[in-house]
């Protein structure tokens, strides 16, 4: 899979011109640069798998989902910016960077608003599993835009994942406790995630470091969510309980750390590779939903989730075939 990394010039390197320093103790065991995308994939997927569960915990604790996203996004971006500044990294406020970050923030806020609003109604496991579907959609959109080559093996993977999404939806509707509207709302999230994946690769500003773009995107996403909350009459400033503050702190840390790695992964590996955090999010989110929140491991949930993950694996393996 690492063979699909797009080469970059030193000026436009993943770290914004700063060479990747590999500790000597690790050089003797394996090629860190070769396995860096896979390591980042596992890290980012695990962080965001926890987000689906933490979103439901936040709702249980009393957070309005839109306000929760507004505060966690803004504070997470500011925390990341402050942390990077301590390590000597300068921010990039060029007009092209700000424009990119604003649109990226919107394309981040929209699907996450969908997920945070839907998770109390359909469960963290369902949200985590449909997130995996974004990787297939990213590939489909990339083929339509001719930035990826069509392969029949990949088409089989897409079909399997589509059947998985259908199985998940039917399972949620069968028990009668989940209105159709919330199932459809949750399924809209991966569509916008895929659009965001492609946009960031297509519009990435020249010579921009991922560590300059990530905090700005989060801050803009937080502001956009705050505007939505205010438009709907939701109070932004209110004294949270201790439990609410703890849940918010966890989400701020997830965003601040997770998105630093997220943007680095997209820079060195591209939109389609990045989108494969979906299966990892599905595994982590579903597992945490079952073990921490007591969500039922229904047959439709397991079968649909397995189909989505299998479909993702099939089309991913097809990319390694010449």
Description:
Belongs to the EamA transporter family. The chain is an all-alpha fold. The protein has one domain. Helices cover 76% and strands 0% of the residues. The protein is built from twelve helices and no strands. The protein has helices at residues 24-27, 32-61, 65-86, 95-122, 124-144, 152-174, 180-203, 210-231, 242-269, 271-274, 277-293, 299-319. It is globular, with a radius of gyration of 19 Å. The two termini are 12 Å apart. Mean pLDDT is 80; it is low at 1-30.
Short characterization:
With about 325 residues, the chain is mostly helical. It has twelve helices and no strands.
Helix content: over 70%
Q: How many β-strand runs?
A: 0
Largest sheet: none
Radius of gyration, CA atoms, in whole angstroms: 19 Å
Order of helices and strands: HHHHHHHHHHHH
**In whole angstroms, how far apart are the ends?**
12 Å
Number of helices: 12
Strand content: under 5%
**Domain tally:** 1
What are the segments in which pLDDT stays under 50 over at least 5 consecutive residues? 1-30
Mean pLDDT: 80
Outline: globular
């Amino acid at each position: 899979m690492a063979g699909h990394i797009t080469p970059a010039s030193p000026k436009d390197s993943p770290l914004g011109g700063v060479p990747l320093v590999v500790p000597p103790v690790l050089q003797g065991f394996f090629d860190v640069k070769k396995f860096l995308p896979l390591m980042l994939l596992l890290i980012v997927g695990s962080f965001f798998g926890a987000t689906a569960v933490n979103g439901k915990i936040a709702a249980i604790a009393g957070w309005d989902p839109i306000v929760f996203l507004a505060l966690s996004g803004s504070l997470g971006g500011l925390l990341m910016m402050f942390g990077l500044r301590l390590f000597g990294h300068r921010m990039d406020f060029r007009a092209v960077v700000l424009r990119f970050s604003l649109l990226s923030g919107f394309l981040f806020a929209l699907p996450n608003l969908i997920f945070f609003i839907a998770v109390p109604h359909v469960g963290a496991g369902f949200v985590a599993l449909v997130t995996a579907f974004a990787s297939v959609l990213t590939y489909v959109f990339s083929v339509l835009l001719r930035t990826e080559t069509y392969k029949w093996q990949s088409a089989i993977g897409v079909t399997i994942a589509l059947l998985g999404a259908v199985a998940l939806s039917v399972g949620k509707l069968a028990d009668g406790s989940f209105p159709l509207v919330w199932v459809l709302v949750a399924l809209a999230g991966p569509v916008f995630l895929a659009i965001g994946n492609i946009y960031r690769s297509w519009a990435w500003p020249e010579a921009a470091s991922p560590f300059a773009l990530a905090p700005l995107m989060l801050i803009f996403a937080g502001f956009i969510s705050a505007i939505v909350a205010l438009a709907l009459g939701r109070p932004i400033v209110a004294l949270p309980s201790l439990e609410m503050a703890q849940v918010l702190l966890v989400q701020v840390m997830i965003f601040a750390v997770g998105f630093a790695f997220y943007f680095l992964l997209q820079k060195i590996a591209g939109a389609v590779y990045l989108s494969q955090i979906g299966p990892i999010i599905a595994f982590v989110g579903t597992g945490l939903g079952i073990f921490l929140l007591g969500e039922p491991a229904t047959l439709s949930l397991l079968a649909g989730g397995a189909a989505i993950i299998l479909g993702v694996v099939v089309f991913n393996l097809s990319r390694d075939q010449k």
